[in-house]
Structures are given as structure tokens and as C-alpha cells.
Design brief:
Aspartate Aminotransferase, domain 2, alpha/beta, binds 4'-deoxy-4'-aminopyridoxal-5'-phosphate, 2 domains
């Protein structure tokens, strides 16, 4: 079996990890800790260009994680960088926002059918927390329905970890099961006359699980409950926003939210989040106190306007769907040729990969290691992301390396049986 990984103990990455362990608790924080990526994956990076990302060891990979979502046009997109850098050279962090704040709000209101207004933050967690606050302020009620297993950010009300979190932080959350209208009915009943909002993900994209698009009966039921009870339907479009539909991901299922949160891809990697809302929640938007020292920076907003313009001009979601379909078909065919049963679920622009009979995703992890050794950066338990830099040529180059990776995996698997 070929050596799986480039990350030897003397590599620049290994040296940085050792230094980090001394001065950063756990070596790194959150999902970048070693256990979140296949063993031996690099943790430190040096740069990116188009569909390529370069690790600190100087190795380039065809990147199917896209910085875990933000890179939607490709790394260092010239038009976006030009817009951002123009503002950086004029001054980014000023005494208040730049004109780009208004341009971007106008752009979102023009592009997203439910949006009558927009507010800006930095991270998806900020945007989702703002949505929950707006729902409570706008309804004067407390209960928020959240799907079991869904991720909405790393703050006490939503973190997947309970360490350091109090029961009070979660006191007014009621769980339901995504795509299960009966469980939603039951949760709504439990909220009684105290329902402030129902939080829905763009689709079911829970870690390590098969992804599911929202069904129409579920989406319609969520909308109907909110209409009947005058509660807020809150769409968490942080991960999927702008990849599936520029008007918001639930345009695909024909249901419009009252409030929606975006981040990740909105500015092709520049730090920004947004909340859009209907006039029903405009007054709440006027009265809630939302702010942050860096929430007014002009460069990321300039980058967002440019990103959305490119996506519109290039028919972004359709191209991402086509690129993802080519990737999925090639990968699953290659797997089958080597005797592996691999499925990719979810929207083609952001698929998750599963090997059949693979508890703990061990086989998936071994496959990712083989692909990494051949210059392709995949993930075994998180959904991956396509960008507009994933042209047919780039995907075909990746698929050829992926075919070699399956070959190596098949050889490796055959060893114990011989
Ligand atoms: N919601 C969803 C669906 C997400 O995927 C994420 C980030 N992975 C968040 C919220 C939180 O966003 P952030 O990490 O920018 O705070």
C-alpha cells in the first residue's frame, strides 16, 4: 500500500501543531481539532488559488471543502478580491459602516423574495442568535423549536457540546425531528401559546448522517404553524445559502421564511453574516440591540456584493449543481469499479459521502487519506462543497486521483484476506 500521508513528524505542519499545543488549549479549537478531520490531514494552510488549497507543507490539493463552505467562487476570486482590497486600502474598520452596507442590503432585498430588510453580523452563530432574538422580540414569546441533531452555531443556546452550558441556556428550546410533520405538530403543541419561532435548516445536513432535502409536507407544515400562531419561521441558510438558490434555499421547496440567516458563502471567504426578514419583524429589527466591534467593516460587505453579482452573472447555483453531479457520478462509478458501495447524498453542490457497512466511517477516513496523498482534499463525515472553480477539467483531474485512491484502498482491504 502506498504511503498514505505526507504529514511526517518533521513537517512544517507537525512542528506548528507541537508549538500550538503549548499555547492554544487542545492545539486548536472547535472543528479544526485533530479529531474532526481524517488522521494525518494537515491542520495549517498557507494559501489557496481557484480550486486549489496549499497546506503549510507546501502541498497543493484540489479542494472539496472550500474552507468548510465560504469559498463559492474559488479561492482568491479576482473580482471579489478587487472589491474588498479597494475598501481595505481606503480603510476597512472605520467609525461606522461604508456605503457597501446599504448596497448589500439593497442587493439582498432585491435577490431574496422574502427579504424586506437585512442586518449584518460576522458569523453564522451571530446571525442565528439574532434570528432567535428577533423572533422572541417580534412575538413577545419564548419557545423556539429546533430539529434534533441540527447544527446552528457554537454558542450556549445551540452548541452541540454541553460543556460549560447551563440548562437555563436551553430552557426554551423544544426539539422536533426534521422532515417529520407529526413530531413538529407535537413540538408546536408543547409550546402552546408561547411559540416564538420554528428553526429549520436549509436541508438535513447533520454531521455524519445521510443528507435529506426538506419534503414539501414538512416545509408546508412549518409554514402553516407559523402562520396560524403568528410565529417566526426561521431558516438557517448559513451553510447552504447562495449555493442552492440565490433567493434562499427554501425557494427550492416553495416555502418562504420570515427570518433567514446567511454566512459562509456570502462573501467568498471574507468574514460576514446576514439576517434577512419580512416587514412583520422590521420593528423587532429596530428595537433589538445587535452589534459588534467588527460588524461594520466595509471590505467584507464589498466582497459580498461582488460575490452575489458573480453568482448571478454565472448562473452560480445551476453550475454548482452540474459540477457536483459530475463529481458524484464519477466518484460513485469509480467506487463501484473497485468493489465499494459509496453513496453521495444531499444537493450535488454540497454532498456528503458514505461507504456502505462502514460504522465509525473508518473506511471513509482511509479513503480520504488515500485521496489526500494523491492531491485531493475530501471529508469523510461532513458535507463537502463545490465552487465555481471546480470546472469539468478540475473535477476530471480529481476523479482520476480518486480512482487511484480507490485502487489503493481496494489493495489495502484485500491484504488481510490473502
Ligand atoms: N448554522 C449552520 C447550518 C452552520 O453550518 C454553521 C457553521 N458550520 C453555523 C450555523 C454557525 O456559523 P459560524 O460557524 O459562522 O458561527
Amino acid at each position: 500500500m502506498p504511503s498514505a500521508l505526507p504529514n511526517d513528524p518533521h513537517s512544517a505542519d507537525s512542528r506548528l501543531r507541537a508549538r500550538a499545543r503549548q499555547v492554544i488549549p487542545g492545539g486548536l479549537w472547535g472543528h479544526m481539532r485533530a479529531e474532526a478531520v481524517p488522521a494525518g490531514y494537515p491542520q495549517f494552510f498557507e494559501g489557496g488559488d481557484g480550486a486549489l488549497v496549499r497546506d503549510v507543507n507546501g502541498r497543493d490539493y484540489i479542494d472539496f471543502m472550500c474552507s468548510w463552505g465560504p469559498i463559492i467562487l474559488g479561492h482568491r476570486h479576482p473580482e471579489v478580491d478587487r472589491a474588498a482590497l479597494a475598501q481595505i486600502s481606503a480603510g476597512d474598520c472605520l467609525n461606522g459602516p461604508t456605503e457597501h452596507a446599504v448596497r448589500l442590503a439593497e442587493k439582498l432585498v432585491a435577490t431574496i423574495p422574502h427579504a424586506d430588510w437585512a442586518l449584518f453580523q460576522k458569523n453564522g452563530s451571530d446571525a442565528m442568535t439574532s434570528c432567535v432574538t428577533l423572533a422572541r422580540a417580534g412575538t413577545g414569546r419564548r419557545k423556539i423549536l429546533v430539529a434534533r441533531g441540527a447544527y446552528h452555531g457554537a454558542v450556549p443556546w445551540s452548541s452541540p457540546s454541553l460543556i460549560g452550558v447551563t440548562a437555563e441556556d436551553r430552557a426554551h428550546l423544544i426539539p422536533y425531528d426534521y422532515n417529520d410533520a407529526d413530531s413538529l405538530d407535537a413540538a408546536v403543541a408543547l409550546a402552546g401559546d408561547d411559540l416564538a419561532g420554528i428553526v429549520v435548516s436549509a436541508f438535513r445536513h447533520d454531521l455524519a448522517q445521510r443528507q435529506e432535502l426538506p419534503t414539501e409536507p414538512f416545509a408546508n407544515a412549518a409554514r402553516a404553524h407559523c402562520d396560524r400562531l403568528d410565529a417566526a419561521l426561521i431558516l438557517d441558510d448559513v451553510r447552504a445559502g447562495f449555493r442552492l438558490n440565490l433567493g434562499g434555499s427554501w425557494e427550492e421547496v416553495g416555502v418562504r421564511p420570515d427570518l433567514a440567516a446567511y454566512s459562509k458563502a456570502i462573501a467568498n471567504g471574507y468574514p460576514l453574516a446576514a439576517v434577512t426578514g419580512t416587514d412583520r419583524f422590521r420593528q423587532a429589527g429596530e428595537t433589538c440591540f445587535f452589534t459588534g466591534s467588527f460588524w461594520y467593516g466595509g471590505a467584507a460587505m464589498a466582497a459580498a456584493v461582488a460575490t452575489i453579482e458573480v453568482l448571478e452573472r454565472e448562473d452560480g447555483p445551476a453550475r454548482l449543481r452540474a459540477a457536483g453531479t459530475r463529481f458524484a457520478q464519477g466518484l460513485t462509478r469509480s467506487a463501484a469499479r473497485h468493489g465499494f458501495d459509496v453513496t453521495l447524498s444531499g444537493p450535488p453542490a454540497m454532498p456528503i459521502m458514505h461507504f456502505a457497512d462502514d460504522p465509525g466511517a473508518r473506511l471513509g477516513e482511509a479513503f480520504c487519506q488515500q485521496a489526500l496523498a494523491r492531491g485531493v482534499y475530501l471529508h469523510h463525515t461532513h458535507n463537502m462543497f463545490l465552487s465555481l472553480a471546480h470546472t469539468d477539467g478540475v473535477i476530471d483531474t480529481a476523479l482520476s486521483a480518486i480512482d487511484d485512491a480507490f485502487d489503493a484502498l481496494a489493495g489495502h482491504r484485500a491484504v488481510p484476506a490473502e
